[in-house]
């Protein structure tokens, strides 16, 4: 692995994010911004011309320096394609093409695919949570605890642990909606998260690129994400996003889902700022939680088992 591999894998991750065949304008804006932060050459052009960009996947795969880089490229692409559940047919086709270009056998990639599938199971499947805490103070505490848990996942040694972050965030939105008598399905929960700029592909892409590449090769990401390359930076970003998501959802459902998209985004920004102010006071709790939490227990919580 070297710095050039890091940039190439980020480009492959962007192609994976585009491969599902239907990207909304908001998702495209998120991915363009993320591609720029990741140092992906001509990110907006690639998003505007996905078929032309796809033709370059073989060239990108061939440029990777070693077996480790090739396996990491597939790992990142698989995680991105699985961000909101099992890959759909266009994503499956992209992964098959990428795997062939990387020279990886189905036997070699199958264990990884099983691991990713277990981490990205339907967050509203299984036993759904009961309505969230009955008082405002209890609900606020629930949001804080889930924000701390998602931040702690960024600190776990498991390379793909942060794939469990988005399912936890979506379940939190569901719980908050339940508290206000809303009957939500997964698409409604995803749409609200997307309104706040938490698109599945973009969020998973940034988290996985930061953690997987940062863990595999120290320094590979230097300069690629504006200096915020450490796992600690990832935990801070995730804490702020989850905290803001929970509190903005609370305001939205408390007001009968009558807030406009602009109002929701303003709320999200306000609560992110509140979270950043709060973070220095609870960093120690997040670090302590990271030492105690076990990924299988988190997965059991997501599945409601």
3D architecture notes:
The protein has 305 residues and is an all-alpha fold. It folds into two domains: 117 residues, TerB-like; 168 residues, no CATH class. Helix content is 70%, strand content 0%. The chain contains 15 helices and no strands. Helix 1 packs parallel to helix 6, helix 1 packs antiparallel against helix 12 and helix 6 runs antiparallel to helix 7. The termini are far apart. About 6% of the residues have low confidence.
Can you describe this structure in just a few lines?
By secondary structure, this protein is mainly alpha-helical. It has helices spanning 3-18, 25-37, 43-48, 50-54, 57-63, 67-81, 89-102, 106-119, 136-153, 165-179, 186-195, 200-216, 231-254, 261-292, 295-303. It folds into two domains: 3-119, TerB-like (Orthogonal Bundle); 136-303, no CATH class.
Q: Any key phrases for this structure?
A:
single chain, mainly alpha, TerB-like, 2 domains, 70% helix
Structural shape: globular
Proportion in β-strands = under 5%
Rg is 19 Å
Largest sheet, in brief, is: none
Helix percent reads: over 70%
Order of helices and strands: HHHHHHHHHHHHHHH
Distance between the termini: 39 Å
Taking pLDDT < 50 over at least 5 consecutive residues as the criterion, the unreliable ranges are 215-231
Class per helix and strand makeup: mainly alpha
| Count of distinct strands | 0
Number of helix segments? Answer: 15
> What is the arithmetic mean of pLDDT?
79
Q: Quickly count the domains.
A: 2
Layout of strands and helices, then pairs:
Blueprint: H1 3-18, H2 25-37, H3 43-48, H4 50-54, H5 57-63, H6 67-81, H7 89-102, H8 106-119, H9 136-153, H10 165-179, H11 186-195, H12 200-216, H13 231-254, H14 261-292, H15 295-303
């Amino acid at each position: 692995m070297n710095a050039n591999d890091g940039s190439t894998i980020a480009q492959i991750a962007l192609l994976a994010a585009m491969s599902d065949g239907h990207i909304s304008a908001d998702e495209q804006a998120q991915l363009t911004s993320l591609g720029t932060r990741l140092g992906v050459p001509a990110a907006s052009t690639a998003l505007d011309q996905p078929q032309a960009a796809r033709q370059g996947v073989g060239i990108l795969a061939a440029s990777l320096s070693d077996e480790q880089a090739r396996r990491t490229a597939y790992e990142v692409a698989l995680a991105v394609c699985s961000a909101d559940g099992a890959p759909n047919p266009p994503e499956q086709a992209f992964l098959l093409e990428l795997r062939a270009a990387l020279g990886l056998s189905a036997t070699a990639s199958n264990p990884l695919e099983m691991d990713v599938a277990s981490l990205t199971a339907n967050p509203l499947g299984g036993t759904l949570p009961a309505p969230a805490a009955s008082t405002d103070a209890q609900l606020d505490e629930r949001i804080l605890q889930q924000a701390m848990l998602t931040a702690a996942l960024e600190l776990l040694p498991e390379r793909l642990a942060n794939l469990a972050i988005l399912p936890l965030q979506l379940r939190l939105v569901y719980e908050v909606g339940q508290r206000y008598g809303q009957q939500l399905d997964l698409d409604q929960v995803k749409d609200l998260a997307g309104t706040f700029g938490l698109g599945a592909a973009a969020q998973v892409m940034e988290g996985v690129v930061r953690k997987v590449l940062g863990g595999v090769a120290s320094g590979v990401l230097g300069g690629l994400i504006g200096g915020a390359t450490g796992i600690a930076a990832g935990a801070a970003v995730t804490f702020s996003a989850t905290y803001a998501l929970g509190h903005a959802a609370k305001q939205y459902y408390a007001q009968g889902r009558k807030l406009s998209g602009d109002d929701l985004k303003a709320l999200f920004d306000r609560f992110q700022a509140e979270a950043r102010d709060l973070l220095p006071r609870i960093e120690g709790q997040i670090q302590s939680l990271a030492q105690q939490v076990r990924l299988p227990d988190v997965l059991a919580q997501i599945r409601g088992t």
